Amino acid sequence: MLKIEPYRPQAFIDFTKAENVQAYQTALTKVRAEQLGRHFPVIIDGQERQTEGKLVSTNPCDTSEVVGSTGKASIQDAEDALNGAWTAFESWKTWTMDARARVLLKAAAILKRRRLEACALMTLEVGKNYAEADVEVAEGIDFLEYYAREAMKYEGFGAAETTWFDGEENGLMYLPLGVGVSISPWNFPCAIFLGMLAAPIVVGNTMIVKPAEDSGMIAGLMIEILIEAGLPAGVVQFLPGVGEEVGEYLTTHARTRFITFTGSRNVGLHINEVAARHQKGQKFIKRVIMELGGKDALIIDETADPEVAVTAAVQGGFGFNGQKCSAMSRLIVVDSVYDDIVGQFVERVGRLKVGTGEENAAVTAVVNQESFDKVSSYLEIGGSEGKVLLGGEATGEQGGLTGHYVQPTIIGDLDAQSRMAQEEIFGPVVSVLRARDWAHALEIANSTEYGLTGGVCSRDRARLEQARREFEVGNLYFNRKITGAIVGVQPFGGYNMSGTDSKAGGPEYLGNFMQLKAVTERW
Ligand SMILES: NC(=O)c1ccc[n+]([C@@H]2O[C@H](COP(=O)([O-])OP(=O)(O)OC[C@H]3O[C@@H](n4cnc5c(N)ncnc54)[C@H](O)[C@@H]3O)[C@@H](O)[C@H]2O)c1
Ligand SMILES: N[C@@H](CCC=O)C(=O)O
Questions:
Q1: Interface pTM (ipTM) of the complex?
Q2: In a 10 Å sphere around its CB, with 0-12 CB exposed, 13-18 middle and 19+ buried, how is residue 379 labelled?
Q3: pTM value?
Q4: How many Å lie between the centroid of ligand 1 and the Cα of residue 409?
Q5: Domain 296-486 fold
Q6: Best mutation site among 324, 425, 426 for ligand 2, i.e. most ligand atoms within 8 A of its Cβ?
Q7: Ligand 1 center–CA 212 separation, angstroms
């Protein structure tokens, strides 16, 4: 059994200190000099492959800047990756949990050393500011550290208790499933990408990993770190490519044993459907783990501390430009304090600095043109369904730079059933809803098909207890922002259309990637 200290989450870097800001800027300069223009190829069975096309990453805050590129896997690459992963599985599944955990722990140690480099690359590739990037890389390290330790629970025979039966030895074995496919989003390109591969491999599966098209470089950097940590060839096949092409091929394939997907509701539902269809020669029912979107609400009642509540709303609504599944995209305020709270909220958001990730602005550009167009269309819908209280314009430029800039926007006086209050926008846009009273606020909060995160700012104990029981979300927060779950502290995952509630970073997560065998020997 591995001897290591108990798991503790990484501390975040304090960017109120000038020396930490300076260190970040030095890392940006270094990454610009050493990583800009890099190409991360497809890697199959440990071998880099040149592909016909490539996927180019541009800086969302300055679209004239090419950050680098990845390979663009073909269907043949996907087929080869599957074959290679099944071959690698035969050996990897025989490694002990300890041995596999060591690879994760070593990778965590390397990522700790390269923390600011990873942050800086993320700033350039997806536009995260310093704190958002740092919190994410810390989460990536946490996933590696946490799952390495969690795997120890399953070492050997008898991890789960079975009832004694005279004359027999009975026990449960935990076994890996086989080859899995991980399909990840661009908004947490380090942490979610790492978490979705680290958990399955540490318990003995092999993986094909397809990162999102907009964030392949960060993913490539994480793969480089895993290889440096000693990951054997074929255990993780790196397959950057187009979702509708290689993603579709792999999720449909007869030899894909399980799929772990994080992304939008519509793509998730589509994958769920194709994965359920039996293919010729398929000898298992594919297991599907889904983490999807949200329309997350924060309720503020008349007993709340206004400073605490407004701070929670600003942080939850506009952290990384609202591009989090956990983002507070609905603010529900009870009537008696609506004008005061919403007035303070508008005033605080109006002071947020808009600019580039590099200059550490509070709000930066949204990730790509598609996202810019989608958010722009909701600005129009917001103007017709409600009242624009702040912003409302997709400017497409900021400080002389052309980028996917959208003004921080607040739309008030919305009906709970309006599109603005029901559909995930995924940008710096908050829909504000007026509730008659607490009961009405909770009813509104539960009125979407999603159920990811939610929060209540209140000093009424009975209401908090009622919310504990009745607020239908996988992650519920009181008197704080509703984003920023920490691995091991707040296991993360949603209800209803927000996913299969698999709870990443939680004590039961590894169970998603194993099957149990009950073995009995008659004496
Ligand atoms: N619940 C969570 O934990 C969580 C975390 C992060 C993001 N998200 C959600 O992710 C979304 C934003 O990410 P996104 O824009 O990258 O999502 P997306 O659904 O557009 O893409 C996610 C991934 O799916 C791939 N893909 C697209 N079509 C596919 C297909 N037909 N078959 C297989 N793969 C396909 C993409 O290439 C990408 O890698 C938001 O809805 C957000 O709420 C959820
Ligand atoms: N786990 C992150 C959200 C991930 C989705 O985008 C949070 O808790 O804020």
A1: 0.99
A2: buried
A3: 0.98
A4: 24
A5: Aldehyde Dehydrogenase; Chain A, domain 2 (3.40.309)
A6: 324
A7: 7
